[in-house]
Amino acid sequence: QVQLVESGGGLVQAGGSLRLSCAASGRRFNTYAMGWFRQAPGKEREFVAASRWSFRYYADSAKGRFTISRDNAKNTVYLEMNNLKPEDTAVYYCAADSSLSSTTVNDAGAYDYWGQGTQVTVSS
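The structure corresponding to this sequence follows.
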């Protein structure tokens, strides 16, 4: 069983930056694929970024602006978000799974464990 706790959300002006954190419980954190997803009101949950072993994966909307990183010693994954836009406003969720492949890291349905989410609001 893995428990995930996100933090770092908040209100920021367009063009600003935020750093989200996701702390994970449990052992063998380094073997888990970790993903960030987001869900805006009235929309489906969408993939943002993922980290699997030494690989990083990004949605097109995140490329060049967001960076996912992880500290396996601290069981924590981060999402650094720069040049934020109003359309980035959403609840951001951290997810984990131990058996994903490179073709499923962007599939929300493939993840077994989820955090409670943290709100990110970008004002124009």
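The two ends are 40 Å apart (CA to CA).
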